[in-house]
Amino acid sequence: MPSNLNRRDFFLSSAAAALLAATPAAALTESGARQLVDQVVADIDRVISSGQSDAAILREFERLFVRYADVNIMAQYALGADGRSASSSQKRAFNDAFTSYIARKYGKQFRDFIGGRVEVQSARQIKAGYEINTLAYLRGDGPFEVTFHVSDRSGSRKFFNIYIEGVNLLLTERSEIGSMLDRRGGDINAMIADLKGAG
Fold it and tell me: Which domain holds residue 71?
């Protein structure tokens, strides 16, 4: 049985990746939020079952992440207070580097999802949208909880955060980015350069 860390890594790979579906702007409903989770899982399964090379799967995963995730909100949160001093060009460069970083970091574990499944258990409205609670099953492993936060505040319904057995994806990445900045003495450009080779 995989350790909790491996299980979290798996979903931070598959779901992180799939963070949000771009759909026509409309009032978000519980049904729409549930459908989004189903769509994300189906797209992940399609990619990992395609028989493509690992490199091709990682490229496809990055495309899915850009399509489904509220990248701007995620990147803004991950950069934290340091983003206030960043220029517009630095913010754009960080968003691009952050997107590729997440795809590389978690996409490498995509294949762990082969033969697995995700089942939606419940949904509830939260301030920012909807919280969708699921159980994820990997081959040879018992179920573990994965919670998706879905919003349409960017104009289309997207995931903006994921909790894996209570571990907050955005807080985890904010800590990682903060550590990179600390190692570079707060130099955002140097951190972005580091981010391009990380993951």
Answer: 4-196
